[in-house]
Design goal:
- The structure is a homodimer.
- The model of chain A has no long low-confidence stretch (mean pLDDT about 95).
- Chain A has a seven-stranded mixed β-sheet. A seven-stranded mixed β-sheet of chain A has the order 7-8-9-14-15-16-17, covered by helices on one side. The first copy, chain A, has a two-stranded antiparallel ribbon with strand order 10-13.
- Chain A is an alpha/beta fold and about 300 residues long.
- The first copy, chain A, has two domains: about 250 residues, Ribonuclease Z/Hydroxyacylglutathione hydrolase-like (Metallo-beta-lactamase, Chain A), CATH 3.60.15; about 40 residues, no CATH class.
- The relative contact order of chain A is 0.15.
- The first copy, chain A, is built from ten helices and 18 strands.
- The radius of gyration of chain A is 22 Å and the shape is globular.
- The interface between A and B is large, with 37 and 37 residues.
- Chains A, B: This is Ribonuclease Z.
- Chains A, B: It holds the Pfam family Anti-Pycsar_Apyc1.
- Chains A, B: Belongs to the RNase Z family.
- Chains A, B: One of its GO terms (molecular function) is zinc ion binding.
Amino acid sequence: MNVTILGNNSALPAYGRHPTAQAVEVNGEIILIDCGESTQVQMQKYGIKWRRLNHILISHLHGDHYFGLPGLLNSMSLQGRIQPLHLYAPAPLLPILDMIMQVADSELAYPLHYHQLPEGDAILEDNPAFNITCFPVVHRIACHGFVITQKSSGRKLLLDKCSEYNIPQTFYNQLKQGQDYSAADGTIIANNLVTLDGPPAKRYAYCADTLYSETYLPFIKNVDLLYHESTYLHENADKAILRFHSTTVQAAEMAKLANVGQLLIGHFSSRYKELDAFEAEAGAIFPGVHVTVEGTSYEV
Amino acid sequence: MNVTILGNNSALPAYGRHPTAQAVEVNGEIILIDCGESTQVQMQKYGIKWRRLNHILISHLHGDHYFGLPGLLNSMSLQGRIQPLHLYAPAPLLPILDMIMQVADSELAYPLHYHQLPEGDAILEDNPAFNITCFPVVHRIACHGFVITQKSSGRKLLLDKCSEYNIPQTFYNQLKQGQDYSAADGTIIANNLVTLDGPPAKRYAYCADTLYSETYLPFIKNVDLLYHESTYLHENADKAILRFHSTTVQAAEMAKLANVGQLLIGHFSSRYKELDAFEAEAGAIFPGVHVTVEGTSYEV
């Protein structure tokens, strides 16, 4: 599981930085979080294939988080996509997309399943490979964060032991899921004789655009990797409050409070050409911080 | 007067080429024609300043011609624009823009004057520096081409003659506009004694997305520079008809028939990585052809 940053800037593209978009790869699938203008170009540039993309999450309806969506949806259609796509977004996006298709006298060539984000938190998707939940953050308009949990690949097999007990390979998947084995002679081989605990599930939390607030702390506690916006350096904490955004110090404090493994920061204001001070300020509070770089993939 | 190409590809961005956008510079002002996704990034890249941009023309409502517009409008607002902007576009764009602003709970910081394109041809703008007209072309949905005419800077003064007849410099502007001069003693100095014809007005015609059709020929006759789309090489003339587009050969035939000075072609299908064949095919019919390159400015 990893996160590739496609856009790490706030609303104004600047210094080669683009508005928000992230591609989360989990068990071979891509989940796109937000889709600022030029996301399809960034996906091409960084080798993110739409054929592996089946879920798009839109945090809120400020343009820098979705103006790239209509173009991406159209382009996949033109490129022959037929596989269904699941879109999770605030309710008012649907009529906008409908009007855009209608005035173009066009239809997508694939089924687009629209899932409206609820007011509060919810499970959006739950399948054998991963689940996606959403939770409210605090912004000028309704805005959600997301947690993506990679499901464990199951218990770890002790292959020597499996051979020793003559367990056929066709039963290995059941072993991984914790089942005991019944031999032909009736002997029961307890699962814990031939397996160990598998690796723990990995979790990535994305905090979208938000004012620093402990209201969303319970949803991001102990995740392996947290993305928290850091639009401003801390000297502009007043601007952050005014515009419902966060600073370096606030992002780092939140990471510490939530006891996360690592921290990504982004959504940088276009007032900053250089980002060195972001690393210094956040790192002083939470050493496991990464000032995101477009095109870079971060392991969860 | 010149035209800078910001996007020369058709709907799918490919090989570093972007969807349609062109910046026409005329007497110091910028007129933006179409605004595909990433136009604001392309403007930054090629030094097109929004402070000189007061008119945006949208030919039709296929996304590759306007998906960059909401982002550009927002960005100018965030950057402190207060000067009014004139937008000429098909009627159904306005409710889309309204909804986008409404769901973001935002307003532009500057007046946006929306001018709905008519069904047929019309004068859209007429000021001392230039005028803009529109005319219908033939596409799957309503689509317009545009002609931008740079007004002549007036008659050319013969400075030696002006001195000889003792005409004060304060009257030079009237001379340029063709007026005779009345001296204090009642003598009339005929304008043509002290001036020559000025340079002719320059005209640029943009043919948007269109099927080859002589219906729009009258509107583009004798222009100095014609942009005509050429989505396909001529071997794909059947595809061009099916999708209401044109080929190299058709663009060049139209340029010849219309007796234009020079021809720009663009809106290339993403099926073509290399564009050499476009130059060869169109150039065989109309030698004054330029296969457009993004970032390049073409003199009208």
